[in-house]
Amino acid sequence: xxxxxxxxxxxxxxxxxxxxxxxxxxxxxxxxxxxxxxxxxxxxxxxxxxxxxxxxxxxxxxxxxxxxxxxxxxxxxxxxxxxxxxxxxxxxxxxxxxxxxxxxxxxxxxxxxxxxxxxxxxxxxxxxxxxxxxxxxxxxxxxxxxxxxxxxxxxxxxxxxxxxxxxxxxxxxxxxxxxxxxxxxxxxxxxxxxxxxxxxxxxxxxxxxxxxxxxxxxxxxxxxxxxxxxxxxxxxxxxxxxxxxxxxxxxxxxxxxxxxxxxxxxxxxxxxxxxxxxxxxxxxxxxxxxxxxxxxxxxxxxxxxxxxxxxxxxxxxxxxxxxxxxxxxxxxxxxxxxxxxxxxxxxxxxxxxxxxxxxxxxxxxxx
Length: 367
Prior knowledge:
six-stranded mixed β-sheet, four-stranded antiparallel β-sheet
């Protein structure tokens, strides 16, 4: 009898833990998943991430391996890596095994030249698209780096993504819209083919915070967004239907303290099995871990102040892993600062733009 009682108590605690870990409901046709503090895997993850090396080396004598504020990367059909070395106004191409291949571009205003390149994407023909916010254009080059097209843009963008049909998804600068451009840069049907990220504000009533987010796509062209100042991950269909809303217990208040403009989720990616990963802060930073900085302004690019993590190594960030349905599975601790993340298949590429200016490569391994 005592044994039966003990088993029932254990089952009750087990059921209670997982019932409170995730709450799933439907709000106006949108699946809403409210995750608790712990993931479904508890302390026994079903996969691991192994560090397999870096792209770049600040101590190297090879100038091809020394980067200055790398801020984005993309992949061709063979898995080669194109790193946007923004501070050096160039693209560094590496093999799937992280070996240097060639350099594309240089500083300037001419063909295959950049002033402030801030996003890169590659189409299904391995043509390279680079958005340069100071030149207000997308420069299109073949796989060898020869420019054959320039797309003038109206307004400014902070992220572009090439679709298989040649159209371009573009995240508007300081806007809550992802818009669809045709191959000439013209906006296609604003109402039917853009994602409008309704600004839900923050706990202290600030608006405008749907401006700061990253986005990615899965193999079915569903769009996923993660936000810097909101406890929110969204999934949209390509036709702008909100399919999924994810939140989690972040352990601390999101209310602003003084002039602290803190970033929660810096990046989002989808792995080869359709799982959702975010590069997210695990705690509120300390004052001595932060630095205020302003972005340069030229033309119609406005200057704004942000707060970044100023300590190169520490426990501020972690990788959150969710299943395709939005349920939190596990949190992988990180021991250093990263500014961006890209995922290709079973590889995670974490970019340190500000300290080492390197890319740290991890491999996802199922257990």
